[in-house]
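Q: Please design a sequence for this.
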């Protein structure tokens, strides 16, 4: 399940993608449009800056802007920068301890496939696909 922090990180990045990407957008403007407190947004923005997804500038004329073009971001990288773990089960997390049942686990191949599908799905959607509600650009799953 994607946390509020992950969902808000996507909203903030979409908001920045829909602005003039050459200028810094003040935090208060994003906060007002998104209905997210400035204090909570600052925590998320700090993570996004740390992962070089956005640039921040303090002072007059300051704010935040994307560090790349919207089409050069994937939803997966934004979620992971916000601290989301895309692994479907704990034993598949990057820092998971080795499981003694891995070789005999009847479900591991199912979890590995599910993890691959979700990873490919989130990494297959760009920020540009989401900006402007371009829902027709989002990949559909086969059912």
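A: Design:
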């Amino acid at each position: 399940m994607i946390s509020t922090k992950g969902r808000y990180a996507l909203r903030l990045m979409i908001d920045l993608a829909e602005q003039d990407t050459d200028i810094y957008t003040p935090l208060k403007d994003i906060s007002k449009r998104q209905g997210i407190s400035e204090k909570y947004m600052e925590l998320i923005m700090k993570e996004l800056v740390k992962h070089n997804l956005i640039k921040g500038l303090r002072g007059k004329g300051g704010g935040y802007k994307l560090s790349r073009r919207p089409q050069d971001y994937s939803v997966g990288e934004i979620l992971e920068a916000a601290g989301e773990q895309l692994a479907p089960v704990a034993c598949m997390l990057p820092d998971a301890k080795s499981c003694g049942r891995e070789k005999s686990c009847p479900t591991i191949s199912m979890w590995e496939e599910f993890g691959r599908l979700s990873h490919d799905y989130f990494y297959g959607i760009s920020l540009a696909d989401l900006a402007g509600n371009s829902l027709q650009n989002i990949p559909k799953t086969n059912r």
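Q: Thanks. Anything notable?
A: The longest strand covers residues 54-57. The beta strands are 54-57, 63-66.
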